[in-house]
């Protein structure tokens, strides 16, 4: 058996999340069917981050085992021929059997794209979160800095979260502006269910003046989900890579041109 790693991109708006579903509408369902068609046997996949319904991926990392001997192109173009247009394998390579897409990831990067406008834009539907209130980016950065570091993130954790511990580490939260578009980038060791969407909603309430900047730290310290903002829309959330030990040769932490190119096209 050989172990293979894939880097996958998908438009999450048409799927019920990454994980396999009884309806067959999870990204995992489509990918495993496509892989089985090429491998000639059933295939089970493991991913770096189990994205929710409506959440996208620029660089989702997946590994699977197969006894099939195929050229590298078969695991890319061949698999893509069996996938819907909203999901595609971008890269594939054989890796050491010790590689694990989920447990081997030391860092994960997510980005949230926000459209700031009094009126929503139909061409951004499903691609960016929308807020009609003016955003003060200085307040946004100040409140975001409160969350950097290792904390108990219970206040930003979904009630359906199955993680054994609410403690996670956020290394950086970066904010960039592109005209009416605001891009928030989160890098950390791991994230709880709905954690980023709950954080985004809370940060925006401080950034638009509905709450003081200090409120974000108070919510974090409370460990009480009821005190944070409602879960923000999945539309603008993108999984953009995971970092692994260099010995595996899985380059899933590319430069920023993925979203930069998308943002340039939207302006």
UniProtKB/TrEMBL annotation:
**Gene Ontology molecular function: any one:** tRNA pseudouridine(38-40) synthase activity
Gene3D superfamilies tied to this protein: Pseudouridine synthase I, catalytic domain, C-terminal subdomain, Pseudouridine synthase I, catalytic domain, N-terminal subdomain
Q: What is the annotated role of this protein in its UniProt record?
A: Formation of pseudouridine at positions 38, 39 and 40 in the anticodon stem and loop of transfer RNAs.
Instruction: Share what the entry says about its subunit structure, partners included.
Output: Homodimer.
What InterPro entries does UniProt report for this protein, alphabetically? PsdUridine_synth_cat_dom_sf (IPR020103), PsdUridine_synth_TruA (IPR001406), PsdUridine_synth_TruA_a/b_dom (IPR020097), PsdUridine_synth_TruA_C (IPR020095), TruA/RsuA/RluB/E/F_N (IPR020094)
Domain of life assignment: Bacteria
Which species is this record about? Zeimonas arvi
Q: Which CDD domains match?
A: PseudoU_synth_EcTruA
Domain Pseudouridine synthase I TruA alpha/beta: from-to ranges:
9-103, 144-245
> Can you tell me which family this protein belongs to?
Belongs to the tRNA pseudouridine synthase TruA family.
Please cite one Gene Ontology biological process associated with this protein. tRNA pseudouridine synthesis
Q: Name the chain's protein.
A: tRNA pseudouridine synthase A
Please tell me where substrate binds in this chain: 110
Q: List, alphabetically, the NCBIfam families matched.
A: hisT_truA
Q: Which residues form the active site?
A: 52
- Catalytic activity entry: uridine(38/39/40) in tRNA = pseudouridine(38/39/40) in tRNA
The EC number(s) given in the record are 5.4.99.12
Which UniProt key words apply to this protein?
A: Isomerase, tRNA processing
